[in-house]
């Protein structure tokens, strides 16, 4: 999967779970645009067009983690957190500092795609 933010295309290695598979199936129908807001100084969060199956477990997030929250919220972590969440994937080949700079302090629009 790919996430494009501010014209930068990021590669995501997807998890092997029903949540990630459901997102992939949704993306096979077309790209998804997610308007994302900053939350708590460690993540960007936005709503998906529909809920996905949850596979929540207590995890410690790291910068680059792609998370499903409450079944319908898409989250990109640029910091750390510990909570009961579903991991969808991990952004590849970007440092935490690069990710933080790309996402910035305000709202961003992310485009999710398979190509």
From TrEMBL:
Domain Cyclophilin-like span(s) in chain numbering: 3-112
Coiled-coil residues: none
Descriptive protein name: Cyclophilin-like domain-containing protein
Species assigned in the record: Candidatus Fimimonas gallinarum
Pfam families listed in its UniProt record: Cyclophil_like2
């Amino acid at each position: 999967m790919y996430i494009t933010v501010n014209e930068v295309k990021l590669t995501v290695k997807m998890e092997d779970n029903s949540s990630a598979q459901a997102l992939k199936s949704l993306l096979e129908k077309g790209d998804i645009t997610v308007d994302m807001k900053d939350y708590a100084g460690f993540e960007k969060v936005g709503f998906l067009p529909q809920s996905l199956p949850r596979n929540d477990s207590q995890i410690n997030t790291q910068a680059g983690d792609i998370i499903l929250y409450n079944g319908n919220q898409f989250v990109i972590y640029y910091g750390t957190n510990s909570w009961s969440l579903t991991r969808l994937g991990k952004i590849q080949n970007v440092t935490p500092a690069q990710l933080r700079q790309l996402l910035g302090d305000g709202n961003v629009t992310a485009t999710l795609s398979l190509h």
